[in-house]
Amino acid sequence: MWNVLDRKMMTKKTPILYVVVPCFNEQEALPVSHGNLSRLLGEMKEQNLIAEESKLLYVDDGSRDDTWEIIEKLSHDNDMVAGVKLSCNSGHQNALMAGLAAAVELSDIIVSIDADLQDDINVIPSMVKRYMDGCDIVFGVRRERKSDTWFKRNTARVFYSLMKKLGVSTIENHADFRLMSHRAVMALLDYKERNLFIRGIVTKLGYKTDCVYYNRSARVAGESKYPLKKLVNFAIDGITSFSVKPVRLVMQVGLSFLLIALIILIYVLCAYFMGRAVSGWPSLILSVWLVGAFILIGLGIIGEYVGKIYTEVKNRPRFNVDTTVGLDKD
Known about the structure:
By secondary structure, this protein is α/β, with parallel strands linked by helices. It has two domains: 7-242 and 318-325, Alpha-Beta Complex (Spore Coat Polysaccharide Biosynthesis Protein SpsA, Chain A); 245-314. 48% of the residues lie in helices and 13% in strands. Strands 7-5-6-4-1-2-3-8 form an eight-stranded mixed sheet, sandwiched between helices. The protein is elongated and about 90 Å long. It starts with 6 loop residues before the first helix and ends in a 5-residue tail after the last strand. Mean pLDDT is 79; it is low at 1-11.
């Protein structure tokens, strides 16, 4: 697959690669995913694309099934495997950060990928080559979303369009499948917010980036761990963590309502002096309900930001590690 390394790659030492894989109740998918990932890493080592010290690092995000037992067994049977077990379910983004924090001092580059392997692992060698060419961050980007349902495909399109209009820098059709260099990961770990939207933070790091494109496939096994409720919450976190435009929108709506109220006032005064005024409750009640609804919407948006501040100022740890296995620092 990779017969000849180009001259530029030979000027840089063979990097130590850690593949960080967050896992939550993945006992069905993990054996299949591990077989594919370990085979790929073996081929890359044979081609001298990555160093022999390279590993797979599985992060158990408080799973309630046998995920951690499988990780422990894989680690005991194979020196290429390491694991981190979180004390409770902390969420996908926090589990990913835990894996990055555990791997960063032991590696030169880190690739993050979900355990379902819907992302194409065969582009990882291309990611490494882009790193060797001088890129600190390489994004894995889907070419299309034909495998998604109509609802998911169109809500994703709306989400990315909304994020762009709100001034949030994101890579469309990119999730958390990416390669990052040691210094890029260290910079990412300096971001201490608790309401994590990693794909939004990574684009702000400022290092040289590139993209590799692939077609997404179905899960290797098991069911999706991101139902609609989690996707909505994730989208809200992304918007409110990076943009204050919704708050400004409340002010703009308020000014618009003030203008409308002035127009109505002029109309009422004209009707009164012309003797055509008709008193009635319907218009009054409608106005009260309409204004009240917008006040509540505005308070809800402001409350979302106040909630973010409340979470941040407590400065609680994002995750707690229960135990680890297979890490060199053990």
